[in-house]
Amino acid sequence: MTGSLVIVGTGPGKADLMTPATAAALERATDLVGYGPYLDRVAVTRADQCRHASDNRVELDRARHALSLAAAGRQVVVVSGGDPGVFAMASAIFEAVETGDAAWRTLDIRVEPGVTAMLAAAAEVGAPLGGDFCAISLSDNLKAWATVERRLRAAAEADFVIALYNPASKARPHQLGQAFDLLRSIRSADTPVLFVRAAGTAESKVVTTTLAAADGALADMRTLVIVGASTTRRVGRWVYTPRREAGARP
Amino acid sequence: MTGSLVIVGTGPGKADLMTPATAAALERATDLVGYGPYLDRVAVTRADQCRHASDNRVELDRARHALSLAAAGRQVVVVSGGDPGVFAMASAIFEAVETGDAAWRTLDIRVEPGVTAMLAAAAEVGAPLGGDFCAISLSDNLKAWATVERRLRAAAEADFVIALYNPASKARPHQLGQAFDLLRSIRSADTPVLFVRAAGTAESKVVTTTLAAADGALADMRTLVIVGASTTRRVGRWVYTPRREAGARP
């Protein structure tokens, strides 16, 4: 039987935020490959399905393992959280294809899109991503911190809304504070800043504050941080960014 | 009975890319409000459901109409394509709340996240959004063209992957070409550029080219354009952006 590989994201966490296309791919799989906590979100529906759980830090190894299973004829699904193409496994799979066995290039590979964390976080607080926006991973495991700072500065100066993925971890407790310091040198003190923890799950929690008051210690691995643009505003408990900027033609 | 308002996105088009949470909200609604083509994607499941279709250019009027229906006790769902918070209706709803009837601030309002076009487009071609990225609407209906140019320049200089929403319309046929000209002055000629038309639908079509060869005439209202970062690369028919940048610590 010919193998296949589908790269999916489970969405932010709640079962009803996973797309039916992803649920169907999971149902058909003979083998699931992914970081343990993401695999744990997937209900067991077939006794004959193999689960290959791994640590979060070994993405390329995991990608190669998934590809070798597919090459051996298995129906493999690689499981990320959120959307698999946003700071997740899809990129690692294609890197493994490029650098690995030439036969992997002819495999049946497909990516299923999903609801990424910033969309779930935005929905919890209103519409903060209503204008132009960017997504930056604060982790410097895979890039230089100078690159992160360069992108933060460019985004702040050009007045993008900024979504920060991976804002903090035990190994990187101080980077979010450094990012806020940099942003405070460019953006207004009253810029809305949102900490959304566990967005799109039953335990979600929102803190709405300002850039002046934003404390990096409020974030952990499960937090998505959104820093508003100059137009981002509060209305009651909601925060939104108008699509129209001041000075646009009527 | 107390009214409510839920703002949803149908996803890119295919029914199996709409979240179950959105499908459930649509099922419960007494009134659907939205741009006609988006409403047409929603299957009729209840004979007693009112559909209020409108033109695409009257977002604030549509928002006020939806809010007044909810204030009158109806269970209203406002329907966008994609994700409702990304260049769609959620922002208009909160703007209408801020500028409208004070009673609207106490309404039961909820936003359901969805799969936005750039995620569906990225999934069709691999993992081009694998690194830091930004989303820019090229429309200057709601902002000055100078703002668009400023953000394009900043994003290109800071080496973001760039997703371009609303790249062209009959009224704006030349802006994408201008955007490519600007990007060519900053980014390498061999930067991958992707035109994904009708991503996440049965009619999707991908054109993969380079910044040197990119022709703005290839895009229309249904096209999502992705311009790679310096690290974005092709492998076979796929395009991906590695998470690791050159020079990152091992």
Structure description:
2 copies of one chain form a homodimer. Chain A is elongated, with a radius of gyration of 20 Å. The longest helix of chain A has 13 residues, at 59-71. The first copy, chain A, has helices spanning 20-28, 36-40, 59-71, 89-99, 117-125, 145-157, 175-184, and strands at 4-9, 31-35, 50-54, 75-80, 108-111, 126-127, 133-137, 161-165, 192-197, 205-210, 223-227, 233-235, 238-240. The mean pLDDT of chain A is 95. Chain A is of the alpha/beta class. Chain A contains 7 helices and 13 strands. In chain A, helix 3 (59-71) packs across helix 4. In chain A, strand 7, helix 6 and strand 8 form a beta-alpha-beta unit. In chain A, the strands form 3 sheets. In chain A, strands 3-2-4-1-5 form a 5-stranded parallel sheet, sandwiched between helices. Strand 7 of chain A pairs antiparallel with strand 7 (133-137) of chain B.
Going across the biggest sheet of chain A, name each strand in turn: 3-2-4-1-5
**Largest sheet report of chain A:** 5 strands, parallel
- Uncertain stretches of chain A: none
Radius of gyration of chain A, in Å, reads 20 Å
The arrangement of helices and strands of chain A along the chain is EHEHEHEHEHEEHEHEEEEE
Beta-strand content estimate of chain A: 15-25%
